[in-house]
Amino acid sequence: MALLWTISVCGLFSLVLAAPPECEQLIKPVDLTDPTVFDGKWFVVAAIGQGNMKWQKYFEGMTSSSFEMSPVSEDGKIHVRWADRVEGKCLPGTLDVTVSGSKSSSMFEGVLHESEYLQTCPDCLLFTDTSTQDNVLSKYMFLSKRQGSLTEAELETLKKQAECLDVPLTVYTYEAADLCPY
Description:
By secondary structure, the chain is of the alpha+beta class. The chain has a single domain, classed as Lipocalin. Helices cover 24% and strands 43% of the residues. It has four helices and nine strands, in the order ααβαβββββββαβ. The protein has an eight-stranded antiparallel β-barrel with strand order 1-2-3-4-5-6-7-8. The longest helix has 17 residues, at 2-18. The chain is globular. The chain starts with a helix and ends in a 9-residue tail after the last strand.
């Protein structure tokens, strides 16, 4: 009987060790050389993270955000146009983002922003954004969709992804309504 119990426990233990950790499944990178991954119009449905007070206030005051991404150019850049509604005001902008594999970098308001794009729900785009400004590290994740609202299941997955990447769990959610023009 002890031998059977030992074999059973060892078998169960080996299955646990062989199972991939949940984070491996949740934070798979996306190759940005495939334009179908990101090309087109997107609506930000959630931001999660924290950092510089300026950005925390911005995301707290934001009620909607949309952006459009172009295919990667020959020089490895994506052109991004966006418009956020923050405290009732429309704040449009444009930015060129340098792409390499699943990562990108850009300068925004004199600060280097580094991002990684990750797999998530169908017709969704998930990316991280890390920057340091005034000696304060900012870490955010943004979940965007081509259409529709954020579901509870998508939000729970986003929270798990944030935990895997050690992104603070301050969550902001938005609706794809009352959008500003680019």
